[in-house]
Amino acid sequence: MRITEDGLLEGARFISSPNCDARPADACVELIVIHNISLPPGGFGGPGVVDLFLNRLDPAGHPYYADIAHLRVSAHFFIRRDGEIIQFVACAQRAWHAGVSQWRGRERCNDFSVGIELEGTDEMPFEDGQYGGLLRLIEALKARYPIVAVTGHADVAPGRKTDPGPAFDWKRIK
């Protein structure tokens, strides 16, 4: 795996999300934030996450969707249960994944991070293929950018977020 100069992962399917913008001029990608997501909650393999990141989630499609269809969010990458990696935002752009956040005293983590969503929940173990894809993606990001840390959404937004959750095995990526 390799990240190109324009921030695209070679070999990944790219689906452009409108939920991104330019990073600040002085921002450098140095943090990876790991998340989990499933739509509907606990459901895997469907179009929900893609639809959310493309602003086309049908509020009538599931009772949970009525509360989130208005959100404008994205991540750079989404790793499905089978290990497939989909990219939604070029790494050179700022994806809208961390929200109100802080890391080592710096606010606005979206400015200097790459967001990776794993298809899953806090409580359910992630699949071997997801860990394999995540490890290869982290290595590709480290080869392109001066990454200094890999952390969870819960670590940059404590009290507000819990992902990737207790089922995520940090030892598998350290």
Can you walk through the features of this model?
This protein has 174 residues and is α/β, with parallel strands linked by helices. The protein has one domain (13-172): Peptidoglycan recognition protein-like (Lysozyme-like), CATH 3.40.80.10. It has helices spanning 48-53, 65-68, 128-144, 153-156; strands spanning 13-14, 20-22, 31-37, 77-79, 85-87, 93-95, 102-103, 106-107, 113-119, 149-152. It contains 4 helices and 10 strands. Helices cover 18% and strands 21% of the residues.
The share of residues in helices is 10-25%
- Approximate shape: globular
The total count of helices amounts to: 4
Strand order of the largest sheet: 1-5-4-9-3-10
CATH architecture: 3-Layer(aba) Sandwich
Total number of beta strands: 10
Q: Any idea what the CATH superfamily is called?
A: Peptidoglycan recognition protein-like
Q: What number of structural domains do the residues give?
A: 1
* Structural class estimated from helices and strands: alpha/beta
Assigned CATH class: Alpha Beta
Main sheet summary: 6 strands, mixed
Straight-line distance between termini:
18 Å
Radius of gyration: 15 Å
Beta-strand content: 15-25%
Mean pLDDT: 96
| CATH level-3 fold name | Lysozyme-like
List the helices and strands and how they pair.
Blueprint: E1 13-14, E2 20-22, E3 31-37, H1 48-53, H2 65-68, E4 77-79, E5 85-87, E6 93-95, E7 102-103, E8 106-107, E9 113-119, H3 128-144, E10 149-152, H4 153-156
Parallel strand pairs: 1-5, 3-9, 3-10, 4-9
Antiparallel strand pairs: 2-6, 4-5, 7-8
